[in-house]
Each structure stands twice: as structure tokens, then as C-alpha cells.
Specification:
With about 400 residues, the chain is α+β, with helices and mostly antiparallel strands. It has helices at about 10-20, 35-50, 95-110, 135-140, 150, 165-170, 195-200, 240-255, 290-310, 330-345, 360-365, 390-410, and strands at about 55-60, 65-70, 75-80, 115, 120-125, 185-190, 205-210, 210-220, 225, 260-270, 275, 280-290, 315-325, 330, 350-355, 370-375, 410. Bound molecules: (2S)-amino(hydroxy)ethanoic acid and manganese (II) ion (2 copies).
Length: about 400
Amino acid sequence: MTAPSISSPRLMARLRRMGEIGALEGGGVCRLALSDADREGRDQFVAWLEALGLTVQIDVIGNIWGLRPGLEEGPPVMIGSHIDTVATGGLYDGTLGVMAGLELVEALNTAQIQTRHPIAVAAFTNEEGARFAPDMMGSGVHQGALDLAEMRATRATDGSAVLGDELDRIGYAGPVPAASMTPRAYLELHVEQGPVLEAEGVAIGAVTGVQGISWTEFTITGQSNHAGTTPMSMRRDAGVVAAEIAIAARRIAEDAGPPQVATVGVLELTPGLVNVVPAEARLTVDLRHTEEAQLAASEARLMAAAEAAAEAEGCALTARRLARFGPVTFDPALVDRIAAAAKARHLTVRRMPSGAGHDAQMFAPNCPAAMVFVPSAGGLSHNIHEHTDEADLVAGAQVLLDVVLNLAGAVA
Ligand code: HGY
Ligand code: MN
Ligand code: MN
């Protein structure tokens, strides 16, 4: 039996091809969930799965996976991630994990290696949650953590579309029921999207878990009025309330200290004119922490600050929860296997939590799940300049292959 090895040219060629789909002027990609670009990426993924001889399955929320049979029947060892991106996406967030899964299968096919257990390579719908919240939506439905009907009824955060309509429009509402398959194990290769591995000069992250995530949308309603004639005492300025909520979010992160983070990603004023006191403001706040109690405390402090600011300005406030996931711990034995596989390849490795959400966290309650990280240049992600060196991409894919072979049982 010849040892299978990751082909860098094949892996890079697929990553380059995906970089052409939804390509942005000046680099990066935009493949927002269920957009035409997402459909094009899905079509390409299905074509690759079929070319590798895998049986393609598509479930009711559009998750796609290809099955490579094992000598035995039963649940597969699943490798997955996502090919949808944020609007200013890089070439590797999510896409690396799916392309590495394809490359892993091609390496096994080339070496004519069969495995005891089946292997599945998956791309999950709407991991980003940027167009339709929450994030990790497809994997959440796949693993029974999110309700299909509720997700299909989700309206885009800009109000422009309904998820179910878009899923039907791109033709990816499949036949496989939700929550109908739990893998034997789940593994995901992903760029770190943070600065740690690069700063420490470490090649591989053996990811121990994912921090808790809380997304809230605030809508503040005041009164539009003339910027010049309206005395300050008579204003009900929705914009000022939004600004105070944004500052409160930053103060919460500063007072709590690391790993607490807080982000205002969306901030819209209506009518948004230079000489009109804003009648309405809409903003989103993303809070994250590794500890549930601290995350809950930060959420409570944010809500209190928002209510106080709105009341002081005579504005109405509504809050809508867009996403809420508690912290997740990955399977310690699987994390150990990742660390051991990296060391066996003489790669430096460190254990670390994930600051970003990932599809793997939806599998963790139901089967052994864990992740492999590779360094992000400058810690950049959700940015068109996202980059990871080829040698790091290949090293991560090789570690993934070694762990999957170990789990699936290589047979000559
Ligand atoms: O928001 C996240 O952490 C992920 O990129 N969906
Ligand atoms: Mn991702
Ligand atoms: Mn992302």
C-alpha cells in the first residue's frame, strides 16, 4: 500500500478555481449564501464530487456531501466546512476545508486505498450568517440544533429576501431529511482567522473548542426633524442612541478584558441625510466569550445600556436576537489525535480555542468533532487580503488526511 499524499498542485488549483467564483475586483470573493455566486460554487463542488466517484447527497436545507464507500456500511467519517463567504471574503475561509476534503479523497483514490468506514466530504449551507442569520445554519439544521421551517422563513438581514425562496430559486433544496445522519466523527480544516499561530511560529492548531456567540439587532425609533431648527432639548435622535450602544459595546469588552470581544458590524441611519435628525437606526452587536456566564453578563450589560440610552433620548427600542450559541468543547481524544498527527509529521502544534464559529461546533454534541487550524497571515480574515502560505495549507491538509485515515481505517 503506497502512502497517500496531498498534492499541492491539485489543492491549489481547486482553491484558485473557487477564487474565480464570485471574484471581487482587487481580489477576494463574494459568495453570499444562496446567491448566484453560491450556486455556481455549489455546482462546481458537485461536479468535483462526481468526478471523484462519490455519491452526492443534498439535504432539505441545501447541505451537500459526497460519500466514498468503506468496506463496511455505517456512518462515515465526515470532513466538512463551507463555501459561502462574507461580502468581503478571502480565498480560504471555509473553502480550504472543503477543498482539502476533495484532495484527501483524490489522494486515497490515487493510492488506491480503501477504508474500513465510509468517508464523506461536505459543504454546509450558510455558515457565515452574513446574509441570513444565524451563522452555522446549514450544519445546525443537519444536526438538529436548528429548525428547518424556521430557517426557511428567515428574512435576509437587509430585508431583501426569504431564505426558503432563495434556496428553491437556486435549486438546492434537496431530498435528504434534516437531522437524518450523524457521522462516526467530524473533522474540519480551517484557517485560524486570528494572529496566534503566526505570532508564535506554530504550523498547526489543534482546536479545543469554540467560544460562545451572541448576535443582537437593535432598532431605535426616534423622530426625524430639521438639523438646524430643532433645539437639542426637543430631539429624539435615533442616531445618538445607536452611537451610545456602540460605545457601550466597546466599553463592555474593555472592562471584561480578553477573551471578551464586541463588534458593531451593521449601523444604518434613516433617512441618512446630512440635515435631518435620524428617525430610525439599526445596528447589530456581536459579543463573544469562552465562558457562558461572562457572555450572559455582557449581554445583560449591553441590554441595560441600550434601554437607558433609548429612554434618555425619548426613543423606542426593539432588540432581535440573530444568533446565540454557547461555548463548545471538542472531543479531547480527537484533539489529541490531531496533535499527535502533527508531531508525527514534525510540525509544530499548539492547542487553542477558536474565536470564530464553525460548522464543527454543531457536530460536537452528537459525535467526536474537532478542527485543524493553519496560520492566517497577519491574522486577517473576513477581508479580501486573507492569506495562508501554500506550505501551511498543504501541512494542514496532510494532518487532516492522517487523522481521517486513522479514524476510517486504511485498508490496502
Ligand atoms: O461569525 C463567525 O464566527 C463565522 O465566520 N460564521
Ligand atoms: Mn469559516
Ligand atoms: Mn467566516
